[in-house]
Amino acid sequence: MIQSAHLAGVFDDLADRYDHGHHEEIARALISWVAPGVDDAVADVACGAGAVALQLAPDRPASAAPVLAVDLSPGMVAVGRARAIELECAPAIDWRVGDAVPLPVPDQSLDVVFCASSLHFLGARAVADWRRALRPGGRVGFSLPLATHFRPSQRFAELLARDVPLPGSAQEASAWAESCGFTGAASRVLVLGTRRVVVTSATCPDQR
User: Fold this and answer.
1) Whole-structure pTM over 0.70, yes or no?
2) How far out from the chain centre does Cα 189 lie?
3) 183-201: per-residue pLDDT in tens?
């Protein structure tokens, strides 16, 4: 709990000056890579200001359940809520403040789980929880910094999960996803200025 509170405080401090443009590019790449259906049951895990949820929301039909957007930082969620109101898509997102692991959903209830720019803080326990929450055949899309181009500040380096290896290539990211129990993993490197990010999609197997 101390770690979660500390992590929330770090991102609360960043909420008003977060690099939305960078994270929105990652979110767009993930959505394109995974290609969710417009009415799929979707979670945006450790959503920050909701880069994924905000891009999915405008296309959600009224009959679809809202995108679940969960983050432990009240400041980030407040920024996301305000942006959703500005974009006139607030009803399409269910914002929650709280720990994203475990997700507040029943077993096998989601079609897609997205985790943009956050898995290296959450740890491998998040990946295990996604398998619980996803229906058989459901998909996951996540991003990780490319190890060769990641230079975190000391403040962020201290928060990194030790059980999530930062990939040195797309192939390493896919292999790690499959070692965690997913199938059909596919990854690519996204070049964002001087930064490099690996985006990965994979499928939850029919048998647990």
Assistant:
1) yes
2) 16
3) 999 999 999 888 899 999 9
